Amino acid sequence: MNLIAELEQEHSLIERVAGSFRTYVSRLLEGDAPREETARFLRFFSLFVGAYHHEREDDVLFVTLVSALELPSDRGPLFALTLQHHDLAATLASLEALLLLGEPTPEQRVDIDALCTRYVHGLWNHIDAENSVLFPESEARLARVGLGNLRARGPTAQELEAREDGETLTLKYAPAHDSSAWRGDGCNACPSFGVTCDGLERTWWNEHEWAEAADHLG
Fold first, then answer.
1. In terms of DSSP H, where are the helices of 30-156?
2. Is pLDDT at 136 greater than 90 in this prediction?
3. Which has the closest alpha carbon to 167: 9, 57, 20, 6?
4. Domain-embedded: residue 215
5. Would 120 be classed as within a structural domain?
6. What percent of the chain has pLDDT over 70?
7. Cβ distance 29 to 109 under 8 Å?
8. Phi and psi of 193, rounded to 5°?
9. What string of DSSP letters covers 168-197?
10. How buried is 46 (Cβ within 10 angstroms: 0-12 exposed, 13-18 middle, 19+ buried)?
């Protein structure tokens, strides 16, 4: 299986574990879930999502798009998605620090709930942007230059264990479907659009693609 297909497949699991994490944290704050399982969730997000999934996006897919296709890394989708990776990692670190303190104060409970919501919604938005924009656009462009079958490293033993933890936890904690999360396909649904990214068309399209804009946009 090529890298982009693997990343898409991993997104399916990450999306479900994020929903399970939202369920778990809500139950934890209500005193209805064992605190010991916090470490299992955190290990999934830090090892499988951060150290494995995001690393392969950053170091293989993004690097190849820049080197082989000369796509910009200082603006546009790659810049915005890289910033999202950093923001997700920072949010998780802040959340982890609070979750591992022990019994939270009332103020810390509010912060934990807010950080968990921010992290889960951020992951969902990130997955939507990559699935609907980055991956299909990258796959088509890479195929045109003979790079339609990118490969990357496999998971370490610890990363595999973290993945297994995630799969197990989704069975124990039903993934939440948060109606307050804004989700959707395309650049317009991405929270980075108009903030750190002007959209794929402005940064990736060449003159030929602009000439056929009507066909691209339907």
1. 38-43, 55-56, 63-69, 76-99, 106-129, 135-144
2. yes
3. 20
4. no
5. yes
6. 95
7. yes
8. -65, 125
9. HHHHHSPPP--TTS---SSGGGSTTBTTTB
10. middle
User: How many alpha carbons fall within 13 Å on the CB side of residue 7?
Assistant: 31
Q: What is the pLDDT of residues 142-176, one digit of tens each?
A: 999 999 899 999 999 999 999 999 999 999 999 98
**C-beta separation of 150 from 4 below 8 A:** yes
Q: What are phi and psi of 194, to 5 degrees?
A: 80, 0
Query: Does residue 216 sit within a domain?
Result: no
How many domains are there within the chain?
A: 1
* Domain containing residue 163: 3-210
Residue 61: inside a domain, yes or no? Answer: yes
Instruction: Tell which residue, 126, 132, 129, has the closest CA to residue 86.
Output: 126
Which two three-digit tokens encode residue 78? 């790659």
- Rounded to the nearest angstrom, the gap between the alpha carbon of residue 120 and the centroid of all alpha carbons in its chain is 9
- Domain of 116: which CATH number? 1.20.120
Q: Are 43 and 157 spatial neighbours (Cβ–Cβ below 8 Å)?
A: no
